[in-house]
Amino acid sequence: MPIQKEMKEQLKKYIAIRGYVESEALFVTIDGARLTKRGIQQRIIKYGDMAKIKGVRCSCHTFRHTFAKLSVQQGANIFELQTILGHSSMEIVKTYVNLFGSDVRESHKRFSPLKVLERRL
């Protein structure tokens, strides 16, 4: 999975604050044990409550879904998105494109090859 420079910097800060632990896991509990999937889910819910986020479910799935949506809206290549999300099948990625089809259609209006033809006519 590609990691942007900014994320690398944030991870370095996290590791410096976390300190050395006897675990290969990146995210650990206060005792140094691997943070479980359930533990991550619980923290996301907790931080959503602390941030007073309303009207949206705070979950790992929502983060992933939002990432996919924003990527599609920014014109992400669906083959690259498939790789980043780790999907073995293109079907799930197509779902994201279909879900945000109106957004994609609006973007398409801006860069459609037909605009070039209209100008020439």
Automatic annotation (TrEMBL):
Task: Output the superkingdom of the source species.
Answer: Bacteria
Q: Which GO terms describe its biological process?
A: DNA integration; DNA recombination
Q: Does the keyword DNA-binding apply?
A: yes
Question: What keywords would UniProt list here?
Answer: DNA recombination, DNA-binding
Transport recorded as keyword: no
Q: Which GO terms describe its molecular function?
A: DNA binding
Q: Which Gene3D superfamilies has this protein been placed in? A: Intergrase catalytic core
The segment(s) forming the Tyr recombinase domain are 1-109
InterPro entries xrefs: DNA_brk_join_enz, Integrase-like_cat_sf, Integrase_catalytic, Tyrosine_recombinase_XerCD
Q: Which PANTHER family match?
A: INTEGRASE_RECOMBINASE PROTEIN MJ0367-RELATED (PTHR30349:SF41), PHAGE INTEGRASE-RELATED (PTHR30349)
> What's the family?
Belongs to the 'phage' integrase family.
What is the protein name for this chain?
Answer: Integrase/recombinase XerD
